[in-house]
Each structure stands twice: as C-alpha cells, then as structure tokens.
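Q: I have 290 residues here and want to know how they pack in 3D. Can you give me a structure?
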Amino acid sequence: MLSATSKRVFGGSNFVSTIFLERKLRAHVVRRDRLVYDSRFAPPGKKPNQVAHLFVQLQGTFAPQGGTPSSGRQAWVLAESEFDRVMPGSRTFQSFGDQAMVVEIRVPVGDIHRPAGIDHGPIELPDTVWSAYEALEAAPTEPALYALVHRLSDAGILSKDLAASVVTEEPERFARLWTVMKPLYEEMSTSASLKQIATIARLSLRQLGRDLGDLSKTFGLFGGGFRDASRVIRLRAATLFLSAPATTPSDVARAVGYGSLDAMGRAFRDANLPSPSVVQEAVRFRPSAQ
C-alpha cells in the first residue's frame, strides 16, 4: 500500500486529503470544511473502468439530485458514471458542510456486494464497520485502512479476495518511485512534467517511463496516460476550490497551477465544463443557504 496526505487552507476553507493506493482499490479520506463537491462538474477521465465507489460521509450533508438532502453519517455505493466518469444523464449529487468528512473507496464492481447507484439509496453498515471508519477518521493511516477493508469484508460488503489482495509492504522499486511522486501529491503540484519528475528521481525518461508503466499497471493509475491524469486532477481541484466562500476564479487558477484565468477557462471549455464564473456561482459555499 502507498499513501500520501495533502493539506490546503484556501479562501476561507480547509481541505485535507489522504490517498491510499492498492492493487484492487483506491481510497481517499477527505476533510472538506466550507467546500462543496458537486458531481455535475466532475471532469471524466478518458478511459472507462468497471468500478464502483463506496462513498461514506461521516460528517456533512449529502444531497442527491432530485432527492432530499440528509446530514450525518451515511453510506452510498456510487456507480462509476456517478463519480469518476459523470456523463450526460447521470444522476448527480452534492456533498458539503461547514465540516465535512468523507471516506471514498474505489473498487472493481465484482468486489462490492451491494448494488451501485444513487437510486438504490444509502446502505446499512454494522457497528463494527462504523467503528473502523471512525478509527480511520481519527488517524488516516495505512493500518487503519487495512483494518477497515477487512471489517467491510467480514460484513459481506467487500469481497474476501479484495481484502486478501492488500499488501502491507511494497517492493523497493515502487517505494523508491513513490518517494518522488509523494511530494507532488502533498503539495498539490498538478503541473509537474515527466521530465521534471525524471530529474528529481535521477532517472532517464526511458527508465521513468518503464517504472511509471509498472506502477500504473499494478495500481490501475493513469488509465488515460499521465497527462490526462494530471489534467483531471487539476480540473477537480479547480471545481472544488471555486466553492470556497472567499475566493475568486483568478485565485483558484493560480492556486491549482493554471497560472491565469484565461488558461483555466480554456481547460474548462476543453472539458465541456461551464466557465469558471458559472461553476463558482453554482457551487460557492454559502453557510446560510447550505
């Protein structure tokens, strides 16, 4: 298992995200204070995957399109088309709160034993699983996630095969490359090029390409390529930070690495998203309205 944590205080909001990478799963533990995640503006990656998302909200409000918002702890199984690859016609949702805590686990559809889709409603979790989620919330560490995955497997929500696939100690070649990649996540550096990474890692571009290829194949990363992954990550950061209560689109453009509002606007158009100002008006966190 590989992990990294990113922290950002921005525009009157607070964002802390820990990512966990495994062979058959990817998990995020996310603290979003005074921010709004709106799946209407989630840019899709180019390559589809047969995955589902176990989306558990420990604090905050979950508001499905056409449904009643609900606050407090709740668990949903989201289809890929409702989270990673939101397409026209997909049912969307918002997740927000003055304090919001979310744990999202992405798994192959065959390894989750609950139907995927907002239309199915929230799922029930036993107390043992909720306790494991609370432990992960208190300390988002690899052992805590490992324990949670096994609790979910014991409860019949995730498969035994998925739980058994978790590796607690990575091979040296992956650990070495992650040592270079990890600071990019921690610093939310979405504009790093392969050449820059190769220089930091003291590798040739050819060797870096081989190592990244092995990492990508093993962990299911960069499905549409490294550049596409960077593009999607930067767009997602931009649409999220546009919801901060005290910021401007220009502030966001600089913060996530576009450099200028014009460049961010072009990126939004290329992704078939509305303009940054339109997105901001739709998602800005307003305590009185939320």
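Q: Anything worth noting?
A: The chain has a mean pLDDT of 90. The chain has two domains: 2-164, 172-283.
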